[in-house]
Design goal:
The protein is an alpha/beta fold. It contains 10 helices and 11 strands. The chain has 2 domains: 91 residues, Rossmann fold (3-Layer(aba) Sandwich); 128 residues, NAD(P)-binding Rossmann-like Domain (Rossmann fold), CATH 3.40.50. It has a 6-stranded parallel beta sheet. Strands 3-2-4 form a 3-stranded parallel beta sheet, with helices on both faces. Helix 7 links the parallel strand 5 and strand 6. Helix 1 runs parallel beside helix 10 and helix 6 packs across helix 10. It is globular. The chain binds NADPH dihydro-nicotinamide-adenine-dinucleotide phosphate.
Length: 296
Amino acid sequence: MTAKVIDGKAFAANVRAQVAEHVAKLKADKGITPGLAVVLVGEDPASKVYVKNKHASTIEVGMESFEHRLPAETSEADLLALIDRLNADPAVHGILVQLPLPKHLDSELVINRIDPAKDVDGFHISNVGLLGTGQKSMVPCTPLGCLMMLRDHHGSLAGMNAVVVGRSNIVGKPMAQLLLGDSCTVTIAHSRTKDLAEVCKRADILVAAVGRPEMITGDMVKPGATVIDVGINRIERDGKAKLVGDVHYDSAAAVAGAITPVPGGVGPMTIACLLANTLTACCRANGLAEPKGLTA
Ligand code: NDP
């Protein structure tokens, strides 16, 4: 079997187009422009690229983008004061603090200072709790993107066996919660899981969020399964820099029913879902109906 390739790039373009359409309507009908504030502390090169891309994508869908670039030595008090100002600013519907923060800053304290209603990354402890108890929350962008692609491919996910490899707070755990919310039978695997291959082989839906290049190989995949590869790993092969996932693409694609490639799978969905979350936050803040198909 050769797997259907789930084209995350095309899917994300479609999500961004839907967001742009909603934004245009909000502006025209209600005079409201959704606004996203992104806070970057320090000079981490990868973070600077992410923030630049987020800014460009926000503008592209017609939203307001508020960028706050602070020096690496910014004090915790100053950062918290900025978050307080953004929380109080009615033009700001979403707030994202780019992680990782410099070592002297307490990420948990900073993230939990964001108004949960504006926490478009879905990392605030209130949103984690709301998601865990099946209530309306802001959902972390990467797992939300995976869920959207899975729903699009399968329709209902009810009753499917889902295995999530990885238990991080930003990907693995919220992914598992979302799959449970869609009535999958969910297993979370991690570095202490015994016989990972056997566990993975039970999965109708296999999500890899590990951070280990090409660790999930075709012999670990159930024939016909849907494989979602969250991993982004930079490796060198044949003297060239290459981006690979946590899944060994060729061997897995030979067995799976459907698979997301790296690049061009989950990655593009993350920013698209950040925009979707900002739109959702804006609609909620204004007591308007949430955009259909763009939330969990
Ligand atoms: P973390 O490092 O926070 O978590 C990795 C998880 O993988 C841990 O739970 C760890 O288990 C588990 N793990 C490590 N080694 C093994 C192993 N040998 N067998 C089974 N499980 C193992 O990573 P993240 O969740 O932040 O990210 C995972 C991947 O997703 C990375 O490649 C990252 O770059 C990518 N990513 C991609 C995004 C996108 O937009 N596409 C967004 C975010 C992340 P344990 O808890 O036991 O240590």
